[in-house]
Design a protein that fits this description.
The chain has one domain. It contains 6 helices and no strands. The chain is rod-shaped and about 75 Å long. The two termini are about 15 Å apart. By secondary structure, the chain is mainly α. Helices cover about 80% and strands about 0% of the residues.
Length: about 140
C-alpha cells in the first residue's frame, strides 16, 4: 500500500470521525426537546393547567406526557452517546464491528444519520481500512 493511499485513508478516517462527533452532539441537543413534554406533563399532573373554561386534562395524561418526554430524552441521549463513541472508535481504529452496527442504525435516521452512516459504512468496508483496524 502506497503512502498516498495511506494518507488519504487516514484523512477519510479523521473526517468520518468528526462527522460522528457532530451528529452525536446534534442528537444530544435534539433530545432536549423531550424536556418540553416533561414540563407539560408536570403541569398537567400538578393541576396547573386548570382554567375557568372547560374541564382540565386528567392528571394521568400528565404522567403519560412526562413519561414520553423522559423516554424521548433517554433514547436520544443514548443514541448520541453511541454515535460519539463510534467516532472515537473510528479515530482509534478499534471495534470495527461495533462501528458498523452503529452506522447501520444511523442509516435509519433521515437525513443526517443516513449520510453519516453511509460514509461510515463505505469507509469501514474498504480493505485498506479493515487492515488498519486489525493491526
Amino acid at each position: 500500500m502506497s503512502d498516498t493511499v495511506t494518507k488519504q485513508n487516514g484523512d477519510m478516517i479523521s473526517l468520518v470521525s468528526i462527522f460522528h462527533f457532530v451528529l452525536g452532539g446534534l442528537q444530544m441537543l435534539f433530545s432536549l426537546i423531550g424536556l418540553v413534554y416533561v414540563a407539560i406533563g408536570a403541569m398537567m399532573a400538578s393541576g396547573a393547567m386548570e382554567s375557568t373554561k372547560g374541564n382540565p386534562p386528567p392528571p394521568e395524561l400528565g404522567w403519560i406526557f412526562g413519561g414520553v418526554g423522559v423516554v424521548f430524552v433517554l433514547v436520544f441521549i443514548t443514541i448520541g452517546f453511541l454515535t460519539i463513541r463510534t467516532g472515537i472508535n473510528i479515530r482509534r481504529r478499534r471495534r470495527r464491528t461495533f462501528c458498523m452496527v452503529i452506522d447501520s442504525i444511523l442509516c435509519l435516521m433521515v437525513p443526517l444519520g443516513t449520510i453519516v452512516g453511509i460514509f461510515g459504512l463505505v469507509l469501514l468496508t474498504k480493505p485498506e481500512t479493515a487492515e488498519e483496524f486489525e493491526g
